[in-house]
Structures are given as C-alpha cells and as structure tokens.
Design goal:
The protein has 500 residues and is an all-alpha fold. It has helices at 12-38, 40-47, 51-78, 81-98, 105-119, 122-133, 139-146, 148-168, 170-178, 180-189, 213-239, 247-272, 285-297, 300-329, 335-365, 371-390, 396-410, 414-423, 430-460, 462-466, 468-480, 487-494. It has a single domain, classed as Up-down Bundle (Growth Hormone, Chain: A).
Amino acid sequence: MSPDRAAPRHGSRYVWYALGLLAFGNLLNYLDRNIILALFEPIKHELHITDTQLGWLGSSFAITFALGALITGVLSDLWSRRTIIAGGLAVWSGFTALGGVAGSYWHLLTTRGVVGFAESSYLPSAQALLADYFPRKGRAQAMGIFWIGLAVGGVLAVWLGGRLATTFGWRTALVVVGLPGLLFALLLRRLEDPRPRRAPSGKPPARPFPITTRLVFRAALPLLVAILVGAAAFGFLGLARGLPPRLDTAVFVSVVGLGLVWTVVKWVRIALRRRPLLASAPADAVDEMLEAAGVVLRTPTLIWMFVGGALTAAAMNSLVAWSASYLQRVLDLTLVQAGRQIGLVGLVAGVLGSWIGGRLGDRLMEVTPAGRVIASAMGFLLGAPVCVVLLLVSDVRLFSALFFVVVFCFTWYNGPIAAVLFDVVPRGIAATVMGVYVFFIHIGGDAIALPVVGYLSDRYGLRLALMTLPAVGLLGGALLLLAVPTVARDMARVRPAEPA
C-alpha cells in the first residue's frame, strides 16, 4: 500500500499541463453527473414516473458518491492517486453509457448509483494532487480553474443533453456522453504524481483500531432501529385513507434520516476518543479514517466549512438540477430551447465565477489569513437575493440575465473552499479529509435537497419548491463566515508539520 514513485520537481509548464488535464477530467465528471438532469423530462414521460422519483435519480447518485468518497479518500492517501483517478473515470464513463440501455426506472437508478460511487474517486484524489502541485501560492486560483470543470461540464450537460435527446432520444444521449471518458482515462493514468514516497514519520505506530462485531452492531443500532420504525410507520400510513399523497414515504425518509444522524453522532464519539491529533502514525485504512475524523472534529474551521459547504452545495446543485425542467414547465420552453437559453449563459458565468472566486481568494489571502474563507462566503451572500428575483420573473431574457448573475456568484466558492480545506489539514491525510468533506456535503446537501425539492414540486409546483434554495444558500454563506476567526489558528497548527 505505497503511493506512486516519487516524481521529479516539475517546472511551471508541466504543472499547468497537469492542472489542465485534471480540470478536463472534472469537466467529464460533471458532464456525466449532470446529463441525467437535462433528461428529466423525456425520462419522466417514457418511464411514467413522478418528480419525487426523478429527485431520487439525483439523490441515489449523491448517496453513493458520498459513501464512495469516504473509501476513495483513504485509498488516495495510501495508494496510487493516479490509478484511482483513471480507474474511477473508466468505470463511471462505462456505467453512464449503460444507463442508455436501462430497461426500467430501477435499472436506471442502479446505474446512476454506480456512476456516483465511481465518480467519488475523482475529487479527493485530483484535488490532493493539485494541492501538492501548488503547495501554497496560487492554490485557490488553481482550485478555481479545476472547478471550472463543474461549470463547463454541468452546463454542457444541459445543452448537449437537450440537443442529443431531441434528435436521437435520451438513451443515445447517455451513450454518447459516457464513452469518451474511457479513452481519457488512459491519458490521466500517465500523469506524474508529485508526492514523494512516504518516509518514516518518527511517530510511534498506532495500534489498529479494534473493529468487533459487537462494536459495529452497537454503532449501527440507531440506524437499524430507525429503519424498522420507519418501515412500520410506512406500512401503517399506507393502510390509512385520506392522507396527503406520499406522506408515508416522507415519514419513512425522515425517520431513517434521524437514525443516520444518531449513528453518525455515535461514530463521532468513537473518533474523539482516539489518540491526540498527529500523535502517532495511522496503522491501517480504518485508523486513517478515524485520524481524518479526529482532525475534522478538532478543527473549528473544518466544521464550519463542512456545514456551510453542505448548505451551499444543496442550493447550487439543486438549482442546476431543476433549471431545465423549470424553463420547460414554468416558462413554456422546449428542451432544446431550455438548453440553449441557459447553456451559453451558464457556461460563461460558471467559468468566470470559478476563476474570479479563486483569484479573489488568493488576493484576499495576502491581506488576511481569512481571505479564502471570506471569498467562499461572499458569492452566496450576494447571489441569494438575486436568485429570489430569478424565480419570480416570467420574461425569458430577464431570466437569462439573472441566471448569469446567480451562477456567477454561486460558483465563487469552489476554489477558495477547497484551498481552505488543504490549508488547515496535514498533508498526509489531505485526500482522506477531502473524501470526508465530499461525503458530508452530499449526504447533508444533495441527497436531501433533490428529493425534497421533487416532493415539494409534486405538492406545490416547481417554482415554489425552488424558492427554498436562496434561503438555504444564504444560510450556508453565513455559516462559512463563522470560520473567519478560527482559520489563522488552524493554519498555524498545521504548517510547522509540513515541508516547506
């Protein structure tokens, strides 16, 4: 379980070449991820499903993506990062294409779950590579450029998905979008890894964490009880008459969600009982995971980044997920018109927002250690009020102009927030902590928000359902600002332990 062979110190030309490759890989990541969102309407009509089920197509991806990030984040710190990146890309591309031959809603749901698990390998590993290529200076700008892939891939999915689905059908769209990643995976596999061989740390090795059947059962008991109680409530409500539609599903999801939170709290207590931060070297993958959990729970900046990041991700990703459907239902556009209307606008806004957000974070960092935190929050504090107006207008041209402003502001945070995470995390477990972050923001963000918006849309209409998103984004931005007084101290704690 050793990392890649040590790479030579690269010149700036290779560093920017590596950044370009990783950014394009992130484009494919978000293209394959968001293509399903552009196809919501034709999928709904062919498979005869509800908005709630459409929401679960996105949520199934988010759940497996989050769970996978925990595993691949650890593996990225212990094994070859470029192998994990390339292998994940090949798998998610293949299963995106397989979605085009799905025979039912459940088959499609399964393929999206596998795509989510495979895509989870990319963000922790790729961003850990970038953090090594850009140790400190220009880190937020590099992360911002990397996250341009989110904007380009996400918007390209809406535009290209609409064109392909209208001309050839939604099944062909999935096949065409998925296959190119299989070839690009070969190119990423050849990328040099700047991480040197893991040298002896001089710290005493930790005893492996004892995972026993009794411990696992006791830790998982709240979730098991919640599933049983939720299932009983689901069956009881299913027999009752005169209740609101899908109330049984909402109750089941709520009860299981509370059980999941309770289970996480129990594991948090286990992690906090472990050794002090950086006191000894991780013994194995489980110990590395607990080390990362301990870092997060003992680092106030990370706690605010995690909670605020989950809310901002929920607002941004849900807006993108439902934007094409919103234009078709509320503003009466066709699928192609919807893709054309928000495609180029969202593309330009997302590229500029990601780039300027990273630049702003690095510039503010020269003034105050909290500069990247401030840049992470500013976009949502400015963009949330505009998002409210966006969802109130009925003129297509005005909608496009406001959509530009919202996407521009909402994509500022991508580069700075990733840079903050690496600023306050020890290098040896950086990818593991990033994996934990990805897990948290998707379990606490997308996985909840997407089906909730779908459920609210079934009850009250899509416009009112989306009106919840600006408030969520505003709250997330405000919580990010709570890291302003803590980030300097957390950075100072990590830097002496890192190489210059």
